Amino acid sequence: MTNAGMGSLLTKYQKEAVPKLKEELSLKNNLALPRIEKVVVNMGLADALSSKEVLEKTMEQLAQITGQKPAKTKARESISNFKLRKGDPIGLRVTLRGKKAWNFFEKLIAIVLPRMRDFRGLPETKFDKAGNYSLGITEQIIFPEIEYSKVEKIRGLVATIVVKNSDQQKSKRLFELLGVPFRKV
Fold first, then answer.
1. In a domain, 1, yes or no
2. What is the CATH number of the domain that holds 38?
3. Among the four residues 83, 84, 134, 142, which has the most C-beta atoms within 10 Å?
């Protein structure tokens, strides 16, 4: 995928959303406005305990999706029932900032969400108190970078959009101005 069309969401934020948010929130300083600080993508891998190969293949897929090498997350404590030892790799995490975060968010809205099965808009209930939005994606194959033939198992991931200077209402309004489709009640 080329970056020719990318970056338009950041431009839309700067040209359209910033003036509207300043007016609606009656703020004078642009730095006080809600803005996307980073996007964190997490993927849990319970089956990585039995096979190192699974971890490597999934790392490769997550790197293709995000455009950045993922970091391994390790178990914090041992749980004997799950044959889990403290320090075992049990997941992957990628933190995207700046342009990469905006590009990923734009790809999520424009390409990935419309490819989701039975997609009728995002639920408004996924905002936390600080205004961050967590979206669970059940299949990594809806990302255009993933070759379906090379996927041995369908895995889910969670994308958290961290919004600075915000709360639930401000973040929802920011997302609406950026064109994020919300579920009609």
1. no
2. 3.30.1440.10
3. 142
Average pLDDT, the chain: 84
Q: What's the one-letter identity of residue 98?
A: G
List helix spans (H) across 13-167: 18-24, 52-66, 98-107, 113-115
Starting at the earlier edge strand, list the strands of the sheet with 133-137: 71-74, 89-97, 35-44, 157-164, 133-137
| Residue 102: domain span | 8-177
CA dist 14 → 19, 105, 136, 140, 171 (Å): 8, 15, 27, 30, 15
Residue 182 maps to a domain: no
Q: How would you classify the pairing of strands 133-137 and 89-97?
A: unpaired
Task: Kindly report the backbone phi and psi dihedral angles of residue 76, in degrees, each rounded to the nearest multiple of 5, phi listed first.
Answer: -80, -30
pLDDT band for position 183 (50/70/90)?
A: confident
Strands (E) located in 75-156: 89-97, 133-137
Q: Report the number of distinct structural domains present in the chain.
A: 1
